[in-house]
Design goal:
Length: 185
């Protein structure tokens, strides 16, 4: 086995949930991860961070419902200043494993697994849920106030000829008649 595979298996095995022999009821699992968890995945969006995930497993005879409550503190790289900053995320998601005869992805929220599957691994689900919360444009908190504010401080350039043209344009007589009707009401 390659060294990378050993690292991945060792890192991911902590996120295994043994489902073989579970009774029909609700179970609760806690998982934690840090920089080493994010370094296993090949991605450039998250620089590092840590998370705590609470997974509530609800088992029935035909399916397993997993409810994820994830609290993550991520190190991100600002797209504007290229500075690293930390951001907090609170994530609530649900995933369903339905029992069937083969392994198949039914939708983003549902997978089919064979009857008798001994365990499921939630590492990739946790990573996907955390990654999907990161905004497309990652801005350091000090730049966020500049975006949502009013238009004060925005420079607009107009030459004098354009201003004269806009002032000298007369209203089309057809529009003027319509405006007169509007003003009479």
């Amino acid at each position: 086995m390659q060294p990378f595979c050993k690292k991945v298996n060792r890192e991911f095995s902590a996120f295994d949930i043994n489902i073989h022999g579970l009774e029909t009821k609700t179970y609760e699992y806690d998982f934690e991860g840090d920089d080493s968890f994010f370094s296993v995945f090949e991605q450039e969006i998250i620089e590092g961070g840590s998370f705590k995930a609470k997974v509530i497993l609800d088992k029935t005879s035909t399916l397993i419902r997993l409810n994820f409550e994830i609290y993550a503190r991520l190190k991100l790289l600002c797209d504007r200043s290229l500075e690293t900053f930390e951001e907090d995320f609170k994530i609530n998601e649900m995933h369903i494993y339905k029992f069937g005869h083969n392994t198949e992805e039914i939708s983003d929220e549902m997978d089919m697994i064979p009857f008798g599957t001994p365990k499921i691994n939630v590492a990739e689900l946790i990573f996907d849920y955390v990654l999907l919360q990161v905004p497309i444009k990652k801005l350091h908190p000090r730049f966020r106030d500049e975006i949502g504010g009013d238009e004060e401080g925005v420079m607009i350039y107009q030459d004098q000829e354009t201003e004269k043209e806009s002032e000298s344009k007369e209203t089309d007589p057809r529009w003027a008649a319509l405006l007169n009707l509007k003003d009479k009401k």
